């Protein structure tokens, strides 16, 4: 009987795995279709200066609205795009679209674009970036590339050279999700980041969770200051979190408190009605 159960469990499990693989294959095919037929779009989330409460930039975030499944999170489809190689084309589309959108904003406002480690490993990335900037007539310093610590997994001469080439193009570089990966301090020394983004897991609820998160944020801020880098606290939702982040000295804040990711038309509406001034949600005069 034990043997029979074992087989039964095995058969059940393998048919589940088959469904998963089939599901992924279908998603991959649909994603290809979405890229070819305008099924992807970008939304933008404001990044706000703590000192001035001005919007200094918007982060471009990719959305896929699937005809049958509805909105699919980038945390679901980006890994599929990375495994299948589709990320190269998708990433290029994101760069071009974000640069074109940002070209319609005031010069004081940057656009931040997430770059996958797979794109980062492609020697033509600097050429693609220059082409996106030129195509949109956007100056390089208005584009910030967000890179995660995982690019350092193959920490070698190629990684160093890519940082140098991107700096040479004139774009800004941000280290995304800091604190969630290896957080080795060695590469902060040699990689030319302009900004460290403190992962939302340290920020959210930090006001109630107390000392440990705030101690970590504080030490990241002083490290960044010593290296002349900005800091953005990600994922601030409440006034308490905002107050705490400011007390801890983060130079910038990004989170639902200042706005959820929104379509570019809404960015333009806000710029037209509020200028570059940001306001915590719930206190906006209308
Ligand atoms: P990320 O780059 O760290 O982006 C920040 C994520 O935090 C976004 O999720 C944003 O919507 C969310 N967020 C911001 N403020 C708050 C807040 O106050 N509360 C909560 N609960 N969430 C907040 P999103 O848009 O789902 O993106 C998830 C991840 O997918 C991104 O994390 C990034 O790693 C990846 N991603 C998104 N767009 C792209 C893209 O164009 N290319 C690549 N390679 N990755 C992308
Ligand atoms: Mg990001
Ligand atoms: Mg992040
Ligand atoms: Mg993330």
Automatic annotation (TrEMBL):
Signal peptide: none
Every EAL domain range: 24-275
Protein name (record): EAL domain-containing protein
Organism, scientific name: Sphingobium phenoxybenzoativorans
